Amino acid sequence: MLHDLTLGTNDMEKAVAFYDAIFATLGVARLDGGEGWMGWGKSYDEGFGFWLCPTFDGRPATAGNGTMFTFAAENAAQVRAFYRAALANGGTDEGSPGIRERYDPTFYVAYVRDPDGHKLCAVHHRYDPAGDIE
Fold this sequence. Notes:
8 strands, 4-stranded mixed sheet, alpha/beta, about 30% strand, about 130 residues
């Protein structure tokens, strides 16, 4: 259903360092989008891509209230690595890794904000605490 997702950024260098770090924890490769653009994931012909660019209208990039982007993790260890990488690269905490009472107990999740304030989430939705080795 989704082709790509694009976010505006106010500081491309800082944003690229942040997204390089978190996507590395999820095994997602960087794409070169040409001048002014940077992406991760798949090319347009291969699947879903996540892209950064300056805003089209030249005004400051802002985060949407109630907007969140969720990335799939293969296990709880990846969720924890995503969270640590985000905080170590200019992100802020919005909810440490773990399960939440309001969700199914197999939903292991962490929430962060990127340097521009966009809310992000990493989730492993088949969590089994018995198999969690970290």
